[in-house]
Amino acid sequence: MEPNGHSFLDKVIGIVKEETADNVPLIDFKHPKELEAILSDDLDISKPTNDGELERTVRKMLQYSVKTNKSTFRNQLYGGTDPYGLAGSWIAEAFNTSQYTFEVAPVFTLVEMKILKHILQLFGIPDGDGIFSPGGSISMLYALVAARFKAFPEIKAKGMRNLPEMVIFSSKDSHYSIMKAAHWLGFGTDNVKIIRTNDLGQMVTEELEETIQKELALGRYPVLVNATAGTTVLGAIDNLNAVADVCEKYGIWMHVDACWGGSLILSNKYRNKLKGIERANSISWNPHKMMGVPLQCSAFLLRDRGLLHEANAAAAQYLFQQDKFYDVRYDTGDKSVQCGRKIDAFKLWMIWKARSDTGLSQLTDHVMEIAEFCLSAVSRKDGFRLVTETVQCPNVCFWYIPKFMRNANEDDEWWDTMHKITPKIKELLTLNSRLMVAYCPLRHHKNFFRLAFTFHPIVEERQVLDMLQSIEDCGEMVTLSML
Q1: Are the beta carbons of 61 and 14 closer than 8 angstroms?
Q2: CA atoms of 109 and 114, how far apart (whole Å)
Q3: CA distance linking residue 2 with residue 14, whole number of Å
Q4: Chain centroid to CA 266: how far?
Q5: Which residues of 182-202 are buried (b: 16+ CB within 10 A; e: fewer)?
Q6: Please, what is the Cα angle at 39 between 36 and 42, to 5 degrees?
Q7: Which of 78, 138, 245, 471 has the maximum number of C-beta atoms within 10 A of its C-beta?
Q8: Helix (H/G/I), strand (E/B), else coil: 459
Q9: 192-198 long-range contacts, CB within 8 A, separation 24+
Q10: Could you list the pLDDT tens digit for every one of the 483 residues in the chain?
Q11: What are the φ and ψ backbone dihedral angles of 408, each rounded to 5 degrees?
Q12: Which of 343, 341, 354 has its CA nearest to residue 291?
C-alpha cells in the first residue's frame, strides 16, 4: 500500500482502457450468489493490500462489470460517456469541492451560471433560473416544491394545514418519480390524477381538462400538470402547446419532464418536436441520458427567477454569511435542497466547450437518424413487429415472434406465451454477451423490446442490423419447454 496512493492513481487510465477495450465482452454474467462466491476474498476490506494485489482485484471486479461503453449496451436510457465529459468528471473529482459557495468553487460557480444561462436560452426561457440536481426524480421534487410555494408561500413556515387539498396531473406513461414525489412531499399518491394516453403514448389533453374540471368541482386545488417530453418506454412527447393552453386557462403550474427527450433541443432539425416547451413554468433535463454526460448530471430549469431561493433558502449563518468580503449573490447553494453539491455542471461545460452547439446538433441528428433506420429495418424484417410506427425520441419498440409462434391464432393464450418469450430472449442475449436490451409491458401490450439510442458510442447502421440479428438468433433458440 502506497502512503498517498498516487502511484496506483497513475495506473487507473490504463486499467480502464484495457478493461473496456473492443475485445472485452459486454458482460460476463453471474447470478448474485455465484458472484458473491467468486469475489468473496476480493470484496473483503478487513486487511490492507499492496498496489499489485489491488490492481488484480480491480481488474477481476471489472471483468464482471457491465461495459456500458459498448454499442450493445442498450439496457437503459444512458450509455457510453462522452470522452470530454469523462475528462471533466475526473477533473471535478480530483478538485473535490462543493458547489454551494463562490468561496470554495469560484470558477465552478461561474461555469454553472454560464451553462445554465445557455441552456435556458435554448429552451426559450432566457430570463429564468436553474440548478443542477442528482437526477430527474429530485428535479420532480424541485418542481412540486416550487409550484406549491408559488401558490401558497405561507406553506414554508406553516406547513400544509388549513390549505385546500392539492392535486397533481400526469399521464399514464409518465415517469414513476411523480408518485414518489407526491408521497415524500405529503400530497399523497391518491392525489396524483392519471390521465389516459393515446396509441403513441401522448397525454390526451381533452381528458386532462375534463379531470381538472372535476377536481375543481370537488373543491380541490390543481397545483401542477406534469407533461412529458420523451416517455421512458415509447419516447412519447406530449402535445406541449395543448397542455400549456389548458394550464394557462386554469392557472396551473406546467412542468415538463424532458429528462430523456430534452436533448432534442440541441438539434436544429429536431428541436421542433419540443415546440411549446418554452411555455412551461419548469423543465427537467438529464444530459447524463441521451447526451452521454457521465452520471450524474441533471438540470432543473424554471421561468420564475428568484423563486428557487425563496422556496428553499434556510440562510445557514455558518455557510451563507451576508457580510463576506465578496459579492454573496454568487453563493448559489441556498437555492438547493442539498448542502454539499457536486460540480456536475463542469462535465457538461467540458463537452460543450469541446463540441460547441454545432457538434452537439450533429450528434443529436445522428442518433435520431439511427433510430429511424432501426424503425425501418424492424418494419421490414420477418418475425419483427413494431409497437408504434413513429420515432418521437430515439426509442424503437417491437416484438420478436419466433417462427414456431407465427401464423397462429393471436388469442390471449398466444399473447401470454409471447409475454414469456421476450424476457427469455433477453436472458439468452445477456448470457451470451451479445446484447443488453430493455423489455417491458405497457398498458394492454405484453412484454416487448425497447431499443433506445444515445450519443455515445456512436452507433452505425451495420451495428443496428447486428443487434436485430442477435435478437433473431436468440429468439430462434427459444422453445416452449424453456418458458
Answers
A1: no
A2: 9
A3: 18
A4: 16
A5: beebebeeebbbbbebeebbb
A6: 140
A7: 471
A8: coil
A9: 192/167, 192/168, 193/167, 193/168, 193/169, 194/170, 195/169, 195/170, 195/171, 196/171, 196/172, 197/171, 197/172, 197/173, 197/236, 197/443
A10: 555 567 888 899 999 999 999 999 999 999 999 999 999 999 999 988 899 999 999 999 999 999 999 999 999 999 999 999 999 999 999 999 998 888 998 999 999 999 999 999 999 999 999 999 999 999 999 999 999 999 999 999 999 988 999 999 999 999 999 999 999 999 999 999 999 999 999 999 999 999 999 999 999 999 999 999 999 999 999 999 999 999 999 999 999 999 999 999 999 999 999 999 999 999 999 999 999 999 999 999 999 999 999 998 888 787 778 887 888 888 888 788 888 899 999 999 999 999 999 999 999 999 999 999 999 999 999 999 999 999 999 999 999 999 999 989 999 999 999 999 999 999 999 999 999 999 999 999 999 999 999 999 999 999 999 999 999 999 999 999 999
A11: -105, 165
A12: 354
| Amino acid making up residue 162 | N
The set of residues, in sequence order, having a beta carbon less than 8 Å from that of 127 and lying 6+ positions away, is 120, 303, 305
